[in-house]
Each structure stands twice: as structure tokens, then as C-alpha cells.
TrEMBL record:
Keyword Transferase on entry: yes
InterPro entries xrefs: Glutathione-S-Trfase_C-like (IPR010987), Glutathione-S-Trfase_C_sf (IPR036282), Glutathione_S-Trfase (IPR040079), Glutathione_S-Trfase_N (IPR004045), GST_C (IPR004046), GST_Phi_C (IPR034347), Thioredoxin-like_sf (IPR036249)
A Pfam short name: GST_C
Domain of life: Eukaryota
Family per similarity comment: Belongs to the GST superfamily. Phi family.
Name the UniProt record assigns to this protein: glutathione transferase
Top EC class of this enzyme: transferase
Enzyme Commission (EC) number: 2.5.1.18
Keyword annotations from UniProtKB, A to Z: Transferase
CC per GO annotation: cytoplasm
Keyword Transferase: yes
GO molecular function: glutathione binding; glutathione transferase activity
């Protein structure tokens, strides 16, 4: 069986999300870099894979997919085993909680945290844009409120969907990894259960492997 292909730079948060899931299930894969500075993602070849001209794109034989969370779920479904079941679709209630916290990451956690990553790392270090401290301060206040909810949840369960690791947890890895390279990483110290959860995620072999490919710019 030919390896699946993931198109995009490995240090991209959305690309890393997909690669992490492929690593977790142990599938063979190939990462095909896309030259973002050279606008390769807008080329006809890449638009044939992702009509929106974004990353990642994904190929499994004749199947082409885009949108990192959708790709990740496809991978986790296709390669699910009794030992690796990160969507928990065999249990309706557990699967529902995986879905809930996956949605929370996309619509509540990430919108609070990602502006901090952009303002502290991506903008100044990669695009020469100065940090907007007002945006950072506002986002930190939003993130604190989100982390209060996470702290309460994780004081009762080891992971977000329950006492089992799932896609809901892995989904948080890419942006949180970069957040931990900002000057505001110590915020997690105020939420001990959140910090312990993050440390459990970082101890996973697949996470360690992908983290090594995501060297963040220095804040």
C-alpha cells in the first residue's frame, strides 16, 4: 500500500495536526513540502488538491482531502484499532464528548490562544510585524477564562473527553506548542490540572516526534 501524502510545511499548525494523527495510528506517510513564500499553495497543481489554495492537502490513493480536522478524523477512522481508538466512535457518549471538546478547541480555545502566538511569534519573527500588545492583553484575558473551564474539567478527568486520550486532546497540540514558546507560557502554571494535562500530552511518543519538526521562532 502506497503511503498517504500530506502536503504542506511540517511546522504549520494545521499540517502538524494531520501528521500527528498519522503518527499516532502508525500509518506510512510522506510529507510533501509546499513553498508558501513562493506562493506554491496558489499554483494550479496545489489548487487541484485544495481548491481554496491553503494547507494542508492530503492524498490517499485517488482520494484528495483538505481541512486539517476533517483529514485527521479520516485518518483516525481508517487506521483505528483496538489499541488506537482516538475518536471513541464505538461508544456513543464517549464519542460525543470527543466531539464537544474538539469543537471547543476550534471555536473557543484556539480563537483565544492563536492571536497570542501570532502577535508574539509569527508576526514579529517571520513577517517583520511588530507585536500589538493590546491584542495580546485582550487575548490573554479571554484565554484565562477559557482555562478556568479547562481547569475545572481536568480536575475531574485526566483528559478532556474523559479518562482516556483522544483526538480532542491531540487537536490542542499544535497551537499550544507554539504558545509555550511565547513569553506568556507561564500562564499555564496558574492552572495545575491544565499544566499536568499538557505534560501528559507532551510525553506521548508521537507528540515528541512531531514537536521535533516544529522548531518555533524565538520570542
Amino acid at each position: 500500500m502506497a503511503p498517504v501524502k500530506v502536503f504542506g510545511p511540517a511546522m504549520s499548525t494545521n499540517v502538524a495536526r494531520v501528521i500527528l494523527c498519522v503518527e499516532e495510528v502508525g500509518a506510512e506517510y510522506e510529507v510533501v513540502n509546499i513553498d508558501m513564500k513562493g506562493q506554491e499553495h496558489k499554483s494550479p497543481g496545489h489548487l487541484a488538491r485544495n481548491p481554496f489554495g491553503q494547507i494542508p492537502a492530503f492524498q490517499d490513493g485517488d482520494l484528495l482531502l483538505w481541512e486539517s480536522r476533517a483529514i485527521s478524523k479520516y485518518v483516525l477512522r481508517k487506521y483505528k484499532t483496538d489499541e488506537v481508538d482516538l475518536l471513541r466512535e464505538g461508544n456513543l457518549e464517549e464519542a460525543a464528548m470527543v466531539d464537544v471538546w474538539t469543537e471547543v478547541e476550534a471555536h473557543t480555545y484556539n480563537p483565544a490562544l492563536s492571536p497570542i502566538v501570532y502577535q508574539c511569534l509569527i508576526g514579529p519573527m517571520m513577517r517583520g510585524v511588530p507585536t500589538d500588545e493590546k491584542v495580546v492583553a485582550e487575548s490573554l484575558e479571554k484565554l484565562k477564562k477559557v482555562l478556568e473551564v479547562y481547569e475545572a474539567r481536568l480536575s475531574k478527568h485526566s483528559y478532556l473527553a474523559g479518562d482516556f486520550a483522544s483526538f480532542a486532546d491531540l487537536n490542542h497540540f499544535p497551537y499550544t506548542f507554539y504558545f509555550m514558546a511565547t513569553p506568556h507560557a507561564a500562564l499555564f502554571d496558574s492552572y495545575p490540572h491544565v499544566k499536568a494535562w499538557w505534560e501528559r500530552l507532551m510525553a506521548r511518543p508521537a507528540v515528541k516526534k512531531i514537536a521535533a519538526t516544529m522548531v518555533p521562532p524565538k520570542a
